[in-house]
Amino acid sequence: MNFQFYLSYLSRWLLGGLFIGLLSGSASAFFLVALDWATNFREANLWIIALLPLGGFLIGWTYYKIGQNSVKGNNLLLDELYQTQHPIPLRMTPLVLFGTIFTHFFGGSAGREGTAVQMGGSLADQLNRWIAISQEDRRIHLIGGVAGGFASVFGTPLAGAIFALEWMHQGKFRWKSLFPAFWTAWIAHWICAIIWGVAHTHYEIPEIAPHTWINLAWIIPAGIVFGLSGRLFAECTHFFSKLFSQQISWPPFRPLIGGLLIALFVWISDSTTYIGLGVPRIVEAFETPLPWYDWLAKTGLTGFTLGAGFKGGEVTPLFFTGATLGNALSAWIPLPLALLAGMGFVGVFSGATNTPMACTVMGMELFGYEAGIFLALSCGIAYVFSGRGSIYSSQDLGWKKSWFY
């Protein structure tokens, strides 16, 4: 009987993971290609930034008219995982896809992880409409969709699976989620990178500091700063979201006004460094000293963009914030510049999302396993010192909350 149970489990999730991975990986491939086109067009035609208020209004009006609960974004996935009340609407996929492309096309500051995760979760949950499944299986579908979306958009299958399991953790270990998460993440990554041929950004840490007690001790202040930065990023986004909601009652006007102010900021500063994904700046952070305020500017502009109602993720801006903050800390902390940038890259991400294991594994997938001890300690310390903050207001932080009461 046990053999039949495990055979049924394996066959069911082999097929389910294959299907969800195919959908989420293909959606991410299309999204990344479209996002690359939008970014290149904007950089070649900077006048388009003047139309950011119009783009914001279109996004806000579309979500206001047909978005319904899709406007909750990643928090809707968490709410449904915890409570399983209503199916994730299929409309979430095209809404967040084109909303994010419009945000980047016209010059907003946002990321891509949230888009991929929402598409993956939305597409995976459609299985619930076609076949009768239990609440537990539906949760596994959602976890698989999140794993596939994250893995395929960043090219990190191990981190994608661990992120989904860690981010959607409910305080109780469920072994049945393990195989679907890792299998779906690998399939989605393979579909995106191999079948569709979509390339991902590569980063390099050419020098790893010796594992001496002094060098390891320097991780402590760095990790604390990264954790506080992650908390600041989360609070900044929540602050602007609350501010726009309180001051502007009609939702479509929020991104319109926000877009106008962002366009003015770009015009006054005469710089496009802090809009869009900011990947070129992230790459620079591993190579040469940068202005100390880069991380702060990106934090504020991304919080303002998302708080105003534009669409996109937070993770790539968190990478920007962390890498440039680590770059700035190299003036005071005697560790290699690229190593500090890499530690900040995953450390701030860990602090803002409360996913230290996923962030550690992601760092090793992107930078190499040689830096593992520095990355792991940085993520762990940042996680602790970020407190009860999270960029996801619906995230269940469980026992971590009791530390700070």
From TrEMBL:
Keyword RNA-binding belongs to the record: no
Pfam families for this protein: Voltage_CLC
Keywords: Membrane, Transmembrane, Transmembrane helix
Cellular component per GO, a single term: membrane
GO molecular function: chloride transmembrane transporter activity
Membrane topology summary: Multi-pass membrane protein
Official protein name in the record: H+/Cl-antiporter ClcA
Organism: Algoriphagus hitonicola
